[in-house]
Amino acid sequence: MFGLQIRRAAGPMVGQLKIQFGPIADAVSSLVLVATRGGSEQVRLRSLREQVGHIRTAIDIMMKKVKEQHSVAIETADD
Predict the structure, then answer these.
(1) Distance CA 21, CA 28 (A)
(2) What's the whole-model pTM score?
(3) How far apart are CA 54 and CA 34, in angstroms?
(4) What are the angstrom distances between the C-alpha of 41 and each of 28, 48, 49, 65?
(5) Following CA atoms 35, 36, 41, 46 in sequence, which dihedral angle do they give, to the nearest 10 degrees?
(6) Which of 5, 17, 45, 76 is the most buried (most CB within 10 A)?
(7) How large is the greatest C-alpha to C-alpha distance in the chain, in angstroms?
(8) What is the C-alpha to C-alpha distance for residues 20 and 60, in angstroms, rounded to an integer?
(9) What is the DSSP letter of 4?
């Protein structure tokens, strides 16, 4: 049941993320693969949790990368 919902929601997201955020798109596509795979509920749930952790890690890494690349020094006016 959740596999189809995840696949429907993540499909367009992978396409949009692939352009600039490749590692996040790869993590989301692997989440889709895990969600649609057969097996016991416990194994699938554990795998889904791991994939969500990978996505969070990839988002954190990309956030730091974007901040480093696009940061601007702010100068304050002296009185």
Answers:
(1) 11
(2) 0.76
(3) 13
(4) 20, 10, 12, 36
(5) -30
(6) 17
(7) 68
(8) 15
(9) H
Looking at residue 74, what is its pLDDT?
84
Tokens representing 11 are 């499909």
Handedness of CA 59, 61, 62, 67 (dihedral sign): positive
pLDDT tens for the chain, 79 residues: list them: 677 888 888 888 888 888 888 889 999 999 898 888 888 888 888 999 999 999 999 999 999 998 988 888 888 887 6
Q: Which two tokens stand for residue 30?
A: 């692997």
Q: What DSSP line would sit under 6-69, residue for residue?
A: HHHHHHHHHHHHTTT-HHHHHHHHHHHHHHHS-S-HHHHHHHHHHHHHHHHHHHHHHHHHHHHH
CA 58, CA 27: separation in Å to the nearest integer? Answer: 8
